[in-house]
Amino acid sequence: MLTTKIKDIEFKSPILTASGTFGYGHEVQDLTDGNMLGGVITKSITLHPREGNPPPRISETPSGMLNSIGLANVGVNEFCKLKLDYLNKLKTNVIINIAGSTIDEYIETLKIIENSDGNHIGYEINVSCPNVKEGGMAFGVKPEITEKLTKSLRKLTSKLLIVKLSPNVTKIEDIARASEQGGADSVSAINTVVGMGIDIKSCKPVLNTVFGGLSGPAIKPIALANVHKIYKSVKIPIIGIGGISTVEDIIEFILAGASLIQIGTLNFKEPNIGYSLRDELIEYCKTNNVLNLQDLCGGIDYL
Ligand SMILES: Cc1cc2nc3c(=O)[nH]c(=O)nc-3n(C[C@H](O)[C@H](O)[C@H](O)COP(=O)(O)O)c2cc1C
User: Fold this and answer.
1) pLDDT confidence tier of residue 152, bands split at 50, 70 and 90
2) By CB neighbour count within 10 A (0-12 exposed, 13-18 middle, 19+ buried), where does 283 fall?
3) Which distant-in-sequence residues (6+ apart) come within 8 Å of 165 by Cβ?
4) What pLDDT digit, counting tens, does each position of 179-232 carry?
5) In the chain, what are the domain boundaries?
6) How far, in Å, from the CA of 69 to the mean position of ligand 1?
């Protein structure tokens, strides 16, 4: 009823956890059963360890949060040494999210993971990072660079390659098409939306970096619109992300064209949400006589 596939990989549930909101998996093992998820996506892993941005780097908003974590992570070598063992034991699909500041960094990072003993089924490529060789503009802003990066990584792995798109672009469908042309098996969308906040008592920004990424229910309509634009432009499956917190949200994303979805910010409020939404999704299908959830994919009926 809930199973779906990307290429030859089966997902037992369409619900995955979004990068950066589920740590490396083991942090939340006492709070939820990761095995019941369709998949777990790690936080972004980079070639070198990163401390991330100085605090404050998180701030709550009326319907979500702002963050400027800055890709804090242990670096790929420590990741393979210390974190892969736990992930290998999970009885669900593990996807490793990677990030870099040059194409070579992405390549090196992916190569090191490919040579490790991981049981992961694929990679999610975070293209929202600044490209230091191209003036600091994010990789995922330009179709040519996205395609070049995807092609370079495609040559190195036969595992799933998912390009994670940023909404902070002029036409996300152009970037999705470039990913498809570069050989991606899927695209996921969206990453966070640029935002900021000011403390009016101190007149200081709420984040040390001034600008950060907005996530949570506030961005759901933006995410939905982006997913639908992508759906009309590519043939590869789409993983919808952005503000999902209820089973109705999941159905909306599937009707807009997503095959799977990720839960991000809501994990902080309810770490067990991926598990409980799975049960609710089964109930939804039974009540509405949906034999296979995938039959609803892209089923929006225009006015
Ligand atoms: C605290 C935090 C950290 C995040 N870290 C990453 C990251 O390391 N890599 C990445 O690709 N996305 C990261 N994201 C973005 C999420 O994976 C997701 O795309 C975004 O938050 C939108 O989904 P949501 O509204 O369900 O949270 C992060 C989001 C949050 C809130």
Assistant:
1) very high
2) exposed
3) 127, 140, 172, 175, 176, 179, 187, 188, 189, 190, 191, 226, 230
4) 999 999 999 999 999 999 999 999 999 999 999 999 999 999 999 999 999 999
5) 4-296
6) 10
**Nearest ligand 1 atom to alpha carbon 217:** 25
Please give the single-letter amino acid code of residue 51. Answer: E
Nearby residues of 75 by Cβ (< 8 Å), 6 or more positions away? 45, 46, 47, 48, 49, 50
User: Crossing angle for the helix pair 247-256 and 273-287, nearest 10 degrees?
Assistant: 70
Q: What CATH number belongs to 4-296?
A: 3.20.20.70
The reply to whether 129 belongs to the active site is yes
Task: Report how far ligand 1's centroid is from the alpha carbon of 242 (Å).
Answer: 9
Q: Is 137 left (phi over 0), alpha (psi -120 to 50) or beta?
A: beta
CB atoms within 10 A of CB 99: 24
Long-range contacts of 130-137 (CB under 8 A, 24+ apart): 130/101, 131/101, 131/102, 132/101, 132/102, 133/102, 133/103
